[in-house]
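Just wondering, does anyone understand these tokens?
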Amino acid sequence: MSWDDERVREHVQRLEGLLEGLDPGAADAVQALVELYGEALDRVMRLSGDAAALVEDELIRHLLLVHGLHPEPAEERVRRALGGLAEFLAKHRTTAELGRIEDGTLHLAVAAENRAAPPRPVLEAVERAVRAAAPELDRVDIAAPAPEPVLITLDRVRSRT
């Protein structure tokens, strides 16, 4: 049986839902099985002469991440994800700079042209991209300038009534 990436994603989502509903004894059994499969996957990675080729497959990449075996550090994967957004960010006159990864938190700086606050959809796209690249991270902390305050004078309010 050979699954395409879409079927793998659907199966992973279904599996995550099932795992949430397990009682503690069954969850322990699943955890033991996952650890065993993780050890087997680690051996496959060590025996494989081409770990980079294995990472190209979405399912294998997901399994490597689950087991902490991905050969590329999270920082490198995040940089590649941000590079993949370069055209999108340029279109929105926005930049995203990787800060550091510390205690499971990714620190990013995102700003629009003239250091203005980027639009919310741009911030959400950046967060989705980096979370997909490094799902093992606990948090994504995006430092962005605060939106400019909008000053509405009393004269403008009165003129609308």
Notes: The CA atoms of residues 8 and 73 lie 24 Å apart. The first helix runs from residue 5 to 20. The two ends are 68 Å apart (CA to CA). The chain has a mean pLDDT of 85.
